[in-house]
Every structure is written in C-alpha cells, then in structure tokens.
Amino acid sequence: MAAADELTFHEFQEATDLLAETPDASTTSRSDQLTPQGHVSVDLGDSYGAEDEVEEESDKAALLQGEQQQPGFWTFAYYQSFFDVDTSQVLDRIKGSLLPWPGHNFVRHRLRNRPDLYGPFWICATLAFVLAITGNLTLVLAQRRDPTIHYSPQFHKVTVASVTIYCYAGLVPLALWGFLQWRKGIRERMGPYTFLETVCVYGYSLFVFIPTVILWLIPVPWLQWLFGVLALALSSTGLVSALWPVVREDTRPAAGALLSTVVLLHTLLALGCKLYFFQPLPVEHVVPPPHAMDLPPTTLLPSTLSRSLATT
Amino acid sequence: MAEATESAGDGGAASPRPLFAGLSDITISQDIPIEGEITIPMRSRIREFDSSTLNESVQNTIMRDLKAVGKKFMHVLYPRKSNTLLRDWDLWGPLFLCVILALMLQRDAVDSEKYGGPQFAEVFVTLWFGAVTITLNSKLLGGNISVFQSLCVLGYCILPLTVAMLICRLVLLVELGPVNFLVRLLVVILMFAWSVVASTAFLADSQPPNRKTLAVYPVCLFYFVISWMVLTFTPQ
C-alpha cells in the first residue's frame, strides 16, 4: 500500500494532531457572552447604583475580549452592525416605547445596549409621509364641507415634513448627547448613553405620533386636541423615564432644566405639526398675486394662522 | 472496485485515538483505469463582445434590448417566482417608467399655483432616492441581493402604477364627480396591490427569514407614496 502514503492529506494530519492534543476544545458562541448582559438588565428599578456600573464594565470587557475588532467606519460592515435586528426585536422595542413603565429603562431593558438605526429611520420616514398625506386629506374633507376651498396636492408639505422630522430626530439627540457628555464628570455611578442609544430613544418615542396623526383626521377639534395631548404625554413619559436614571445624579437645577427642555421641544414639535399640517388654506391664498411669489412662504403662514384662529 | 480498508477500531474507550485515524488507510485499487471525457455544456446565450455585435445593424441592437425589456414587463405583469429579473437585470425599463410617470405627474405649467402637485424633478428624485434607500436598507439588513438587481426589480414593479396613472388621466377627461373618484381609487388600490405582490415575489427570498417584514415594509411604503401621488393628481 505504498499509494496510501501518497494519498494522506497533510491538513488532516495537522487537524488530527490538534484535536488529539485538546480533546476538550470547544468553541464559544456570542450568545453565551450575551446572556450575562441580559442578566444585568433584569435588575429592577431601585438599584441603578454602583452594581449596575460595575457589572456593566465587566460585561463590556468580556464582550470586547470575545468579539473581534470593530470594523472601521469606512467599511460597510460597520454600518451593517446598526441594522442587526430582527422583526420581533423591532416590534418589541416599539411596544416598549408605547408602554413606558417607570421601572424599566428603555435603553437597558429593550435596547439591551444594542441600538439600531432601522427603527428611528423608518419611523421618521413613515411619520413624515403620514403627516403630509393626512394633512392633504384634511383639505379634501374640508372641501367636501365647503366647496369654495380649492384642493391641491400640496406636494411641498412632504419636503417640509421630512426635513422637520429628520432634523428633530437627528439634531436634538446630538445636542442632548453632547450635553450629557459635558456633564459626565459629575456623574459617578451611571455612564452616559451613546449617541446611537439617544437617537434610538427619540426615534422610537416618535412612533406614538403615527396613529395620533391618523386619528387627527376626525374633524372634531376638542377630540384632536385630546389625542394630541395624550400622545404628547405618552411620548414625553417615555423620554423622561429613559433619561431619568442618567440625569438623576446631576445637580437639581441642571437635571430640571434638561428634562424640561426635552419636554418643551417635544411639545413644540407636536404643536407645530398640528398647526401647520392640519389647517386648510383659505381661498384667498390659493392664487397669490404675481409679486407675492417672491416672498418666502413663512410670511404667508402667520397670517393664515391668525385668520384661521380667529375663525375657529 | 475501489476498496477501502480501515483498521479495526478496537474501542475508543480503551485509549484516546485521534479522529480521522482510519482515513490514511483507505486505498484505491490500481487495477481500474480512470478515464473518460469531461465536457462543459456550452451556454447557448453567451453574449460575445466581439465584432459580431459591432457589425450588426442598429435595428438589431435596439430590438434585442427592447425584447429584453418587454420580457421583463411580462414577468412583472404575471408575477411568478422566477429569476429573470434578477439574473439579467437592466435599468432601461426603470428609467423609461420613471420618466413616463414623472412626465405625467408633473403639474402642467410653471406659473400655475405655487403649492400644487410635484414638479418633474421632485417626482424623479423621489422615485430614485426612494429606490436607492430601500436597496441600501435591504443590503444593510443582510440581504444577498446586489444593488443593481434590487434597483431593477423596484423600478420594473412601478409598471402597474404607471398603467394606473394612464387610466387615471383617461378617466379624468370625463366629467369629475364622486363616481370618477371611486373608479380612480379602485384602480389605484388594485395596481398598488399588484406592485407590492410583484416586488415581494422577487425580493422576499433574498432576505433572512426573520427579517422579511423589515425588508418588505419600506417597499410597501414606497409604493404607497407613489400611489398617493397618482391618486391626488388633479389636472389644472
């Protein structure tokens, strides 16, 4: 059997040697290393204390040892890591934002420190289009009641809506994250959120406005304001309860100022959307005189606001 | 016949034996010569980039491309699970459809009312930017479809909505009224469903199974927005 020697594969020889040396070798999987972190997030509300920070650090260290080097920001795989979610996880996060429980922190419990960009991006896109479309639909319904109103598709509202929503969901978390980083020194116990986690909190908190905007089609004013206030309250509760553990150790004026600014900006967004997208234009402004076309559209807006506020 | 001889494994419990120990003892008898022919079946549809297509008449070239585009249109109109759109992708069809849709959707005159329907550029940019965003989204979620294949499928599946736009424009020539609106609404809803079904038939298999909904939802949103633009078109 001289041919047998020629036919042995040398790689197998090495593999058999290796396996012979370490018969108990086993591969570790990522899921094993994730479960300790899942264990941390089950800890309940009162003990956002030192244990959280210490366990967080050790878990992060364990993860970093097991994981390979994070790909650079110029590679596609880096951005793919932000979309590493399943359908069930996205639905779970949406549910978590709709039902903010004071004890369960959104970032720790729902995000599990794995923020994603899919949710915020598509929730903002949906909200922008739903705003523009339902705003246009109110014009249709208004025309039914009052045939003198001229209907137009108002495509410019899509641009306005998308710019507003995306700027809000992108710039406000940036400012908030910068502020929290700046105040990081004061906080001993709980680390600040990463930028993506802040974006996630804001993005998922905007989800509750989508059904609200659809419900704003009902042409009953007090019902519209009621829905608006309810949605705003739910959304702000989600934001505040997500931010409270981070802000709690800060000085009282700073914490108060931060939380009230957050709620105020959210209120301004809701109010602005309601007033801008859901006011049917009166007849005179549909065909402007030629010289008025040079004016920016914002000058038309306050006059329509005052006129419509006077008539309603 | 080739014979394999293996050393008798006398109980692995007695002494730890390395794995694959018996592999080195397999022998193939040398009595049987191995011979034969290896042929690679020639692909009959190889497009050869040599002088044969350079010398052909322009009509041949154009008809060939038009036939390819027309074949894909038929695949969209009768969506079955097939790979034609994916395998032989091209972007002529999507360009043609987007230009026609944008030409039909733009508002009639520049000096018509300022806050009316979209301009040509707005529709065109919305269509292509939306398609690119959806493609990026499905790539980031881990789909195994290439960028141009995805753009090709999304572009071709606008065909039902373009047909709906044509029908709506014809219906709008008749007098306006609630019946008119209902007919347009029904046509647009039907074509929207057709577009979504056609594109999911092609795109759904490229995603991992637990992320299919995440990849299909933006497609539905995209076609919904286009349907809205088609439905709210009002002639000036």
TrEMBL record, chain A:
Yip1 domain residues: 98-271
Pfam families (UniProt xref): Yip1
GO process annotations (BP): vesicle-mediated transport
Keyword Secreted found: no
Molecular-function GO terms, alphabetical: small GTPase binding
Membrane topology: Multi-pass membrane protein
Protein location: Golgi apparatus membrane; Golgi apparatus, cis-Golgi network membrane
GO cellular component: Golgi membrane
Main location: Golgi
UniProt-annotated stretches for the region Disordered: 18-51
UniProtKB keywords: Membrane, Transmembrane, Transmembrane helix
Ranges of compositional bias, category Polar residues: 24-38
Transmembrane domains' residue ranges: 117-139, 159-180, 201-219, 225-247, 254-277
Protein family according to the UniProt entry: Belongs to the YIP1 family.
Protein name: Protein YIPF
Species of the source: Chrysochloris asiatica
UniProtKB/TrEMBL annotation, chain B:
Main location: Golgi
UniProt-listed InterPro entries: Yip1/4-like, Yip1_dom
UniProt entry keywords in alphabetical sequence: Membrane, Transmembrane, Transmembrane helix
Pfam name, any one: Yip1
Gene Ontology biological process terms, A to Z: endoplasmic reticulum to Golgi vesicle-mediated transport
Subcellular location, record wording: Golgi apparatus membrane; Membrane
A cellular-component GO term for this protein: Golgi membrane
Residue stretches spanning the membrane: 89-105, 117-136, 148-174, 181-203, 215-234
Membrane topology reported for the UniProt record: Multi-pass membrane protein
Domain named Yip1: residues: 76-229
Coiled-coil positions: none
Similarity comment: family membership: Belongs to the YIP1 family.
Record's protein name: Protein YIPF
Organism: Chrysochloris asiatica
